[in-house]
Amino acid sequence: MAAKKLAFLGLGVMGFPMAGHLRAAGHEVTVYNRTAAKAEQWVERHGGRLSRTPEDAAAAADLVMMCVGNDDDVRSVAGRALTTMKAGTVLVDHTTASAEVAREVHAAAKARSVGFLDAPVSGGQAGAENGKLTIMVGGEDAVFARAEPVLAHYARAVTLMGGPGSGQLTKMVNQICIAGLVQALAEGIDFAQRSGLDAERVIDVISKGAAQSWQMENRAKTMIADKFDFGFAVDWMRKDLGICLAEARRNGATLPATALVDQFYGKVQQMGGGRWDTSSLLRALRAAG
């Protein structure tokens, strides 16, 4: 595709490699990060241009991507970027945030004739680095059609799920399912070890049957080895589950297992594991007995 002028706002563990894929594809990329040193590091590695403010980064861009921390960050950074974005351009938010804030930003963007997509991602740091993320998108068909070829540079799947907020709602389903899977895997491993079984052999057998999952394939061995200093952090998962539980209170869904696993993650945080991988639920079980 023809090179475009792009901006990427937020260079955390996800945004840094995602923006790198855009640059590697030949696009003109301007980056902004709240901590300027991280943006300087990105430019040193990938080239491109560094901006000191979201307003400056977004001013000349055809598309602006952002990946920040939470709802308040989305409101702040998107609000600033929109003040300089040109009519007809597109703002894409990859942050995992609430559907409510997605609808707010969509309305603010529409008032300035700017397209907006809420587009949270799944696949973790490895997916971002390898350009194999799954992106679930909320927004309008025409806006999605303009953004999808760009997002495909760091994704294996980019899917429009519905109107504004639908991407965030789909990501909530993703996190609800993951929470239950990780807890079940932790309980299974703990049970196997307490029963005197070779846990790795158990996993090797059951992963060939109906119990198989991405979590089992990618996390079971490190869980058995008690290694959790990598991956998607417990602090981030609790933020995401908080969003899920808040939305459930609004839409009437019942999430008893999700609420329980959220409490278990709270125990991991109390153990000092806020930055451990989410598979560290196993440590809470080991500590319990």
CATH class of the largest domain: Alpha Beta
The coarse silhouette is globular
The CATH superfamily name of the largest domain is NAD(P)-binding Rossmann-like Domain
Main beta-sheet strand count, sense and barrel state: 6 strands, parallel
Tell me the number of structural domains.
Answer: 2
> Which architecture name of the largest domain does CATH use?
3-Layer(aba) Sandwich
Low-confidence stretches: none
Main sheet strand line-up = 3-2-1-4-5-6
Structural class: alpha/beta
Please estimate the helix content.
40-55%
How do the SSEs run, as a string of H and E?
EHEHEHEHEHEEHEHEHHHHHH
Strand content: 5-15%
Whole-angstrom Rg: 20 Å
Give the overall average pLDDT.
98
Number of alpha- plus pi-helical segments: 13
